[in-house]
Amino acid sequence: MKSLETLQAELTAALACSLELVPNPAVPAQSSLRIRSDQALALAHFLRDTPDWQFDFCSNVTGIDWPDRTEKIKVKRLVDGVEKEVEETRTVPGFLEVVYHLYSIARQDGPLILRQRTANRDTDTTVTSLTPVWRSCEFQEREVFDLFGVRFDGHPDLRRILMWDGFVDFPMRKDYVEPDDYEYEPTPHDEVLERAQRHYPAGEAAA
Amino acid sequence: MSYPGAPAISFQPRYAPDGTEQDGELLEVSLGPQHPSTHGVFRMDATLDGEKVVRLKPVFGYLHRNHEKIAEGASYLAAMPYTDRLDYFCSLTSNWAYALTVEKLAGLAVPERAEYLRVITAELTRIQNHACVCGFLLQDMGALGTPLMYAFRERERVLDLFESLTGARMMCNYLRFGGCRCDAPAGWLDAVRGVVAEFPRFLDEFEALLSNNEILLARTQGIGAVSAAQAINGGLTGPLLRAAGINYDLRKVDRYGIYDRFEFRIPLGEHGDVFDRYMIRVLEIRESLKILEQALKTIPDGPIIDPKAKLRGFRPKAGEAYGRLESPKGELGFYLISDGGPNPYRYRIRPPSFINLTLLEDMCLGRPLADVVVILGSIDIVMGEVDR
Q1: Which ipTM score applies to this complex?
Q2: CA diameter of chain B
Q3: Are the beta carbons of B333 and B322 closer than 8 angstroms?
Q4: What would the mean pLDDT of A13-30 be, rounded to a whole number?
Q5: Eight-state DSSP code of residue B15
Q6: Contact B318/A163, CB-based, under 8 Å?
Q7: Do the Cβ atoms of B348 and A60 come within 8 Å?
Q8: B81 vs B2, B121, B334, CA distance in Å?
Q9: With contact defined as beta carbons under 8 Å apart, do B282 and B137 qualify?
Q10: Which residues of B touch A60 (CB under 8 A)?
Q11: Residue among B343, B348, B349, B362 with most chain A CBs within 10 A, to mutate
Q12: How far is B77 from chain A (nearest CA, A)?
């Protein structure tokens, strides 16, 4: 397989799109490219249909939840008229990520790993569906929608797949709270919900 | 529904506004989740026009236990017994797929003898899985009992081997990162040789009974066919993809483990129909027996686990890895992300039988309902893996 840098350069030249190389320290051959959602569909068509690449097989689609995290940074501030280096904490906003593993059966090549990110975790969780390009994404994107809450723009049949239609939360998120009485009622309502709310501090009960 | 090839469906009410009964109405049939032909708790919502299927939507989740979430809360090693419960027919290949990915993530090497033991157990798994699938397929076609019992008789002998090697018949939990849990007991390899030597006789008998049977041919040829392009685009893997004529077997493509040392061929189909899938499985058993014979001849002595591998306090460095192998159902993949902690940050399974169901509707459209059962039987699903 050509190196990911070559691919990045070629794709940027051919489609005038912006790609970010995400290195992978554990398995260097499995670094990935982060693509922008608005360019994803054109890029996917290009990767599948260009004879040089022919990524005809989308093997795996999955989601990852990256919650808000805090990190410590050092900044220079004027403290009592003297410039000092002080440590501050800053919140890095979280996002959801969708990962695609592509292979080429025609050229026996791969994997090429693509990533799409959502803007945040609550209000704007939309990415572009690649099901119109690779049909094998259909159920897997539904699963990511079901368990992570990523909405796929352009998916033909975006419904819950493993959980039932009335379920309200997204169980694979890191901050998912199991209902209080799981065996009795997985989606709490009425008295179970009341009990769950008493049990957990305000706002944390899965409503 | 707006995907390409979606059927135009209009549900007509049974009675016209003036009260007269209309004909040509569509009928919705829910097959499962307790239907005996659905291989577990699987449901299909079929819409029928007369006897023809015009729409078919699979419904999943009856066996969902969020395996991925459980594994993300447990240590790397603690997820190993859970992988047994994915595809409970082929626990040893599920073990191997997981171990393969963790070894990739942590950079562990596997000793020679352990690689051989992995190949032997994986190929034994493959022959018993394929034998059972053919038995189940015939059971679904109405050959009640006999073929399935013959297949189960052979499976029983393979399970006895698993029991004496790992202590468990189905939930083997045999592999460890960087090797295997225990070495083969005395005489085990000879017992495997015995089973391998006798298996072709069973296959000959099985094929003499079935492969030219007129009823089997009538029920399977030309049924549920998918084209090669459709199969690739729909993500079919394993015997289904090869039945459509695509030469793609991960044992040859990725050459994981030590598969590059063995001589075997990849059977390919031509039509992608149910008969090709049946035949490919029978032929794959014969190829697996060849691999087993070669492996049993050349298995060396030596250690069975990488001395660098740690059972306790195992923390791979931060990073991610995707590993896959050719399980009897298709491409079984694991995708792991480590943040340096004792348990995986993200643990994802690429379940072959779940993704092979993507094209179920396309295979069934326009066929009578009775063929749906046969087509589903030829896909080879295990609900423990589909619903996870």
Answers
A1: 0.84
A2: 84
A3: yes
A4: 79
A5: B
A6: no
A7: yes
A8: 42, 16, 15
A9: no
A10: 322, 333, 335, 348, 350
A11: B348
A12: 19
Contacts of A139 in chain B (CB under 8 A): 354-355, 357-358
Paired tokens of B21: 């009964």
**Which residue on chain B is closest to A30 by alpha carbon?**
B321
Scanning the structure block, which residue is given the tokens 């000879």? B190
How much is the mean pLDDT over chain A?
82
Q: B343 or A6: whose pLDDT is higher?
A: B343
Cβ distance B350 to A57 less than 8 Å, yes or no, reads no
**Identity at B361, one-letter amino acid code:** E
For A98-145, the pLDDT digits (tens) are 999 999 998 888 788 999 999 888 888 999 999 999 999 999 999 999
B77-85, Cβ contacts within 8 angstroms, sequence gap of 24 or more: B77/B176, B77/B177, B77/B311, B77/B314, B78/B343, B79/B344, B79/B347, B80/B173, B80/B175, B80/B176, B81/B171, B81/B173, B84/B170, B84/B171, B84/B172, B84/B173, B85/B171, B85/B384
Separation in Å, CA A52 to CA A5, A13, B199: 15, 15, 45
For B223, the token pair is 């049924």
Comparison of pLDDT for B298 and A15, the residue scoring more: B298
Q: Over the stretch B125-146, which tens digit does the pLDDT of each residue have?
A: 999 999 989 888 888 888 787 8
- Find out whether B188 and B164 touch, Cβ atoms under 8 Å: yes
Tokens of B181: 């849990």
- Per residue in B6-16, pLDDT tens? 666 655 666 66
Answer whether B322 sits within 8 Å of A105, measured CB to CB: no
Mind telling me how many Å the CA of B116 is from chain A's nearest CA?
25
Cα A194 to Cα B34: distance, rounded to the nearest angstrom: 35
Cross-chain Cβ contact A134/B338 below 8 Å: no
Q: How far is B284 from chain A (nearest CA, A)?
A: 20
Number of Cβ atoms within 10 Å of the Cβ of A18? 12
Is residue A174 packed enough to be buried (19+ CB in 10 Å), middle (13-18) or exposed (0-12)? middle
- Cβ contact B120:B166 at 8 Å: no
Is the peptide bond between B13 and the residue preceding it cis, with omega within 30 degrees of 0? no
- Alpha carbon distances (Å) from A38 to A19, A70, A129, B119, B238: 12, 29, 10, 45, 34
Rg of the Cα atoms in chain A: 21
A34 is written with which tokens? 């982060």
Q: What is the CA radius of gyration of chain B?
A: 22
Contacts of A59 in chain B (CB under 8 A): 235, 237, 324, 331, 333, 350
User: Which of B232, B322, B333 comes nearest A57 by C-beta?
Assistant: B232
Cβ–Cβ < 8 Å for B93, B122: yes
A161–B66: do the CB atoms touch at under 8 Å?
no
Confidence of residue A207 (pLDDT cuts 50, 70, 90): very low
Given a contact cutoff of 8 angstroms between Cβ atoms, the answer to whether B298 and B326 are in contact is no
Closest residue in B to A110 (Cα–Cα): B254
Report which residue type is found at B331.
E
